[in-house]
Design brief:
By secondary structure, this protein is of the alpha/beta class. It contains 19 helices and 19 strands. Strand 16, helix 13 and strand 17 form a beta-alpha-beta unit. Helix 9 packs across helix 10. The structure holds iron/sulfur cluster (SF4).
């Protein structure tokens, strides 16, 4: 046990049980301790009788259990490139990377947004996948594995394939994505000095986002928007404040919570009454910025915030369903400045479908206007490039050519620098490979293993693609026709493919 950790629940250690689970995070310890989903899943299992669980991170040095004791080895899979660390972790513990090369236990599984959206590029590596919100299904999976311990791997997998939300590649069938009701509030169950967000009590206010921007997996994967009831939120905030003064409110669209302002006021009043509270929020939508919200952030120690505006022009923002006009953006900046924030970072996306030079010019024009109207206020920009994601209305849209995106990126850097604005743009080349993984199919499995074996750098992707004669440009650049069969069609996710097709047509007709 790590002595800088503080458990906010009673763990159950069952010395008579030999049923051991490893829950693995494909990253270093400090990041794992700020991953709410990972920690909550761990806590859920750690409070079960008859099961012992251990957390494993990429920098874990020693383990309490040996791999030969482990019955289930589960990975959280949140980012496309996590596969590299997952393979390295399997390798470190002597577990063959391909499922067919593993004899007997442990069963290796993955859950998280990447594999919930499209598990096909990874289907040969995992025995099963959890599709969607996994909090409850994990318990079912464990029960099945415990109650059928005498059965062989194949029989166990057959049983698991009948559980809603579990996809077993060996027994392929349609899988329904799991959607959890948020009646209880999920929070950081273990505080850590060594967490990336040191000793911070993160609580989930809402899950999903009703805005449905055309490119946004976070929204489409988590529909409908679910909000934790107000009383439950307040109870959880009070509980967290008994253990730390650092609170973070989490949710893709927390400002859409019907009681977001009440929660801010609740915390603001506590601060005004002398409590030392540091509060942060994940991100805010432009249309949620009000003087009260900003005052609460400032009173609780936040100096800067981020606003995602995605596109430079109103035309393109309308097309992607981010219906913000310039006046709303400028007004939000003014409110932030007047109520005490020191600066704002704007997020944008390059290469969104139909983007042209006028849209880039509009970005620069908007930045110029904001800068001029808010002298002394710190403005910066961050950009990534468009990566089409499964289950979104833009899943059929190819990505722009890398060279063209790089010239757009250079243009923005040059023009924004001229205005004295800091700019950070994600690597266009890495975003290309992300797209290949995002829209890939089962033909990618050997390719991914080769990439890992060759070191996982950019050059390894190119070399592996050429070894397997993989047409990666097809996955990345091709504009698919709306009737194309897609690798992830077998995942049953609301609102469903028909809706996505209609939404695609509606957005492009805007
Ligand atoms: S507002 Fe943000 S979280 Fe919501 S759909 Fe748009 S990009 Fe996604």
């Amino acid at each position: 046990m790590n002595h800088s950790e503080k458990y906010l629940y009673c763990k159950i250690f069952d010395k008579n049980s030999d049923f051991v689970i490893w829950m693995a995070f494909p990253g270093i310890y400090s990041f794992s301790m700020s991953s709410l989903g990972f920690l909550w899943m761990y806590k859920t299992i750690d409070t079960l009788n008859g099961v012992n669980i251990e957390r494993i991170c990429s920098d874990t040095k020693t383990t309490r259990y040996r791999i030969s004791d482990v019955k289930i080895f589960g990975f959280s899979f949140s980012f496309d490139m996590d596969f590299l660390t997952i393979f390295a972790m399997l390798n470190k513990y002597g577990v063959p990377i391909k499922s067919r090369d593993r004899v007997g236990l442990p069963l290796v599984f993955a859950g998280g947004p990447v594999v919930s959206a499209n598990p096909e590029p990874y289907k040969e590596f995992f025995d099963f996948f959890i599709i969607g919100d996994g909090e409850d299904v994990n318990i079912k999976v464990i029960e099945i594995c415990k109650n059928n311990a005498a059965k062989g791997k194949d029989e166990l997998l057959k049983l698991l394939s009948n559980v809603e939300g579990v996809y077993v590649p060996h027994y392929p069938q349609r899988v329904k994505k799991l959607t959890k009701k948020l009646s209880e509030c999920i929070y950081t169950p273990i505080l850590s000095e060594n967490s990336f967000f040191k000793n911070t009590f993160i609580l989930e206010m809402s899950r999903g986002c009703a805005n449905r921007c055309g490119f946004c997996l976070a929204s489409y994967l988590n529909l409908p928007l679910r909000c934790v009831p107000y009383d439950e939120l307040i109870k959880t905030i009070d509980y967290g404040l008994k253990h730390t003064n650092k609170i973070a409110l989490l949710g893709a669209q927390i400002s859409a919570h019907p009681h977001f302002h009440d929660v801010c006021n609740y915390i603001y009043n506590k601060i005004k009454n002398g409590e030392n509270i540091e509060m942060s929020v994940s991100s805010l939508r432009v249309d949620a910025i009000t003087p009260d919200v900003v005052k609460t952030l400032v009173a609780s120690g936040q100096n800067n915030s981020t606003l995602a505006i995605e596109a430079g022009s109103e035309r393109l923002r309308r097309l992607i369903n981010k219906n913000l006009n310039e006046e709303q953006i400028c007004n939000a900046v003014k409110i932030c400045k007047e109520n005490g924030l020191k600066g704002l970072k704007f997020y944008g996306m390059l290469g969104l479908p139909t983007e042209n030079q006028d849209d880039l010019i509009a970005f620069v024009g908007l930045a110029k206007k904001i800068k001029k109207e808010n002298k002394g206020f710190d403005i910066s920009f961050g950009f990534s490039s468009f990566v089409p994601k499964p289950h979104t209305p833009f899943q059929w849209c190819g990505r722009e050519d890398t060279k063209l995106l790089e010239s757009k990126s250079n243009y923005l850097k040059k023009e924004l620098h001229k205005l004295g604005i800091q700019v950070h743009i994600s690597s266009i080349k890495w975003d290309y490979w992300q797209t290949v993984l995002s829209r890939g199919d089962a033909s990618l499995n050997d390719f991914l293993l080769e990439v890992y074996r060759n070191g996982g750098k950019l050059g390894s992707f190119k070399a592996a693609a050429s070894k397997y004669k993989l047409n990666t440009e097809y996955f990345a650049y091709e504009n698919y026709s709306l009737d194309k069969k897609l690798p992830w069609d077998f995942i049953d996710m609301s609102p469903g493919r028909k809706f996505l097709e209609e939404e695609n047509k509606r957005l492009f007709a805007t």
